[in-house]
Amino acid sequence: MNWYFPTPHIETWIIDKSHLDHYQHVNNVAYIAQQEKLAWAHSQALGLSFNDYQKLDRAMVVHEHKVKYLQPCLENDIVLCATWITGCDNRLTLTRDFQYICKKRQSTVYKAQTTFVCTTLSTGKPARMPEVFRDIYGSALIRIEA
């Protein structure tokens, strides 16, 4: 696969009728929902679960999405969904990049970048990342060569 960056976290997404819009293409909100699932799967693979977020009273919440829909996906397409942590200031923000490749076409169909902000789960107010977030997310940060 022609991934944008090395060592992606990859999950497979099989497109079914529930993902389609009236054009019979994958609906734009389905791509975003898949991003959420992928980010959680990656966090869990790194060792952070929602239970950890609750115990720490902290959460990484979406601040901004930048998305590009490059090619439509159709029912029964198999899409390889990848994510990387491409930014982490170890204080407040974390950035993830996403790339989806249609397995049959071997081409990128979707790419996105999401910025997350650390908040207090109980109040929604911005808060510094706890040490475990800094350690786990910081160690997963990939270095992007300019």
From TrEMBL:
Pfam families per the UniProt record, alphabetical: 4HBT_2 (PF13279)
Molecular functions (GO terms): fatty acyl-CoA hydrolase activity
Assigned keywords, A-Z: Hydrolase
Record flagged with keyword Hydrolase: yes
Protein name stated in the entry: Acyl-CoA thioesterase
